[in-house]
Design brief:
The protein is α/β, with parallel strands linked by helices. The chain folds into two domains: 5-51 and 113-181 and 275-359, FAD/NAD(P)-binding domain; 71-111 and 183-272 and 363-391, 2-Layer Sandwich (D-Amino Acid Oxidase, Chain A, domain 2). The chain is built from eleven helices and 22 strands. It has helices spanning 16-24, 40-44, 57-65, 112-123, 171-175, 232-240, 243-253, 302-322, 330-359, 363-378, 380-391, and strands at 5-6, 9-12, 32-35, 52-55, 78-80, 82-87, 93-97, 107-111, 129-132, 137-142, 147-151, 156-159, 161-164, 180-196, 203-208, 212-218, 223-231, 261-263, 268-277, 281-282, 285-287, 293-294. A hairpin with a 2-residue loop joins strand 20 and strand 21 (285-287). The radius of gyration is 21 Å and the shape is elongated. It starts with a strand and ends with a helix. It binds flavin-adenine dinucleotide (FAD). Flavin-adenine dinucleotide is lined by residues 12-18, 35-38, 51, 53-54, 112, 136-137, 165-167, 171, 189, 191, 270, 289-290, 297, 300-304, 306.
Length: 393
């Protein structure tokens, strides 16, 4: 291996996970390079993508520690104080309230493009981090002493540790021979923002109809993030509905609880595929963010989990460095893998089970769903576990 440029860590993908990971090692003196296929202008001003990210208290703390929160305008931060889960037209709701916790809110919600921009802003001027844009990675290989990454233009970069943060359909994970179990839910999620005349009272609502799931997440002011999940073959019809008809349909499904609703953004469709990498690490190589675990968005854990994983890996690298050890040693990477898997696996499997329960239209499935809501309400430990997941730091 004789790469043209040498670094300590190569990170493939400058999405929110790759950027946050680079930022968390910025005071170590390690020379880091981030490789991103998009142009610099896209990182500096990421396009609105319809995703509004519900953040746990733990993610908020990490983002504050990394300085990202300072780059997020107040007017972009929504607050979730309460959450309700409703089954079809039933008035019965599973209710999570911040007043039952030691916090005064369950979480915040921020548009994804604003998070991406904040992550870029805290990394772009760091002296030990180089960001190469319009740099598409086409090759990656590692051996017991080093890793090498090849760009589309033929440039080769070397480092003792290579990290992939290049999305749930990570090409470099595949190139490194790491398989992933993928669950295609056969459904599409359509996300958009809507304004309404009645306040959401900082309450998130998830409503499971039999033909689609509708979630409304409270944003700043009288605006909500609307998330419609439906069978793939029904998605085009909803995407092509005139904006007024779409707004009227959402308003009707929500029984007009938010008053008159108006579509104020594009509608963005995302096919729902859950991905779990069979290994998070290999020789001098690790996957973080969606490249490790691509969650179904119903439980809003994707970025939260990615941030947690990036923080765990950064802490392992930092402690190896402080002990004078090789940062790419397999025991360092294995520590990350076992800690992150322990957190990620139950969340991934639990989320997929929830999705199956709420998309099962058989009679037993519907009965089980009704029962699950009641059990959730009746059994305090179940509710406590879910709210703790959101509010603990
Ligand atoms: C509809 C929806 C709603 C969601 N809601 C929530 C929520 O409420 N809460 C939550 O926590 N999460 C949520 N998520 C998940 C969250 O958006 C993702 O977990 C997060 O964006 C993943 O970040 P990432 O950096 O791992 O990957 P990405 O954002 O996919 O970034 C990967 C980067 O790698 C680059 N790249 C890829 N291949 C290459 C290559 N070969 N060479 C160079 N660069 C490359 C890409 O250009 C991109 O910039 C949601 C997701 C969806 C779809």
């Amino acid at each position: 291996m004789s790469p043209q440029a040498q670094f300590d860590i190569i990170i493939i993908g400058a999405g929110p996970a790759g950027l946050s990971f680079a930022r968390s090692l910025s005071d170590t003196g390690l020379q880091i390079v981030l490789l991103e296929r998009h142009a610099e202008s896209t990182l500096a001003n990421p396009p609105e993508d319809g995703r509004d990210i519900a953040l746990t208290h733990s993610s908020e703390k990490i983002m504050r520690d990394l300085g990202m929160w300072d780059h997020i305008p107040e007017t972009e931060i929504g607050t979730i104080r309460d959450a309700k889960v409703v089954n079809g037209k039933s008035p019965y709701a599973l209710h999570f309230a911040s007043e039952n916790t030691d916090r005064d809110y369950l979480g915040h919600i921020i548009p994804n493009h604003i998070i991406r921009q904040a992550a870029y802003n805290v990394v772009k001027d760091l002296p030990n981090v180089t960001i190469l844009t319009e740099a598409e990675v086409v090759g990656v290989e590692t051996n017991t002493t080093a890793g090498k990454v090849t760009l589309k233009d033929g440039t080769e970069l070397g480092a003792p540790l290579v990290i992939s943060a290049d999305s749930r359909f990570s090409e470099t994970r595949r190139k490194m021979g790491i398989s992933a179990s993928m669950t295609d839910f056969g459904r599409v999620v359509i996300v958009c923002e809507m304004e309404h005349t009645i306040s959401h009272n900082d309450t998130a609502s998830e409503c499971f109809h039999y033909d689609q799931t509708l979630a409304i997440l409270p944003m700043h002011g009288n605006k909500s993030s609307v998330v419609v999940t439906l069978a793939t073959d029904k998605a085009d019809a909803v995407m092509n509905m005139p904006p007024e008809a779409f707004a009227a349909d959402i308003q009707r499904r929500f029984d007009g609880q938010l008053g008159n609703m108006k579509l104020v953004s594009e509608r963005h469709p995302y096919p729902l595929v859950g991905v779990f990498a069979s290994q998070f690490v290999k020789t001098r190589f690790a996957v973080v963010g969606d490249a490790a675990v691509g969650m179904h968005p119903v439980t809003a854990h994707g970025f939260n989990l990615g941030l947690t994983g990036a923080t765990i890996l950064a802490a392992e690298i930092r402690s190896a460095l402080e002990g004078g050890f090789d940062i790419g040693a397999s025991w360092v990477l294995k520590n990350y893998e076992s800690k992150h898997r322990r957190i990620a696996r139950p969340l991934y499997l639990g989320t997929n089970a929830l999705v199956r329960l709420y998309t099962d239209t058989t009679v037993p499935g519907r009965m089980l769903r009704r029962a699950a809501l009641r059990v959730g309400n009746i059994l305090p430990p179940v509710k406590q576990m879910i709210t703790r997941q959101l509010t603990q730091i």
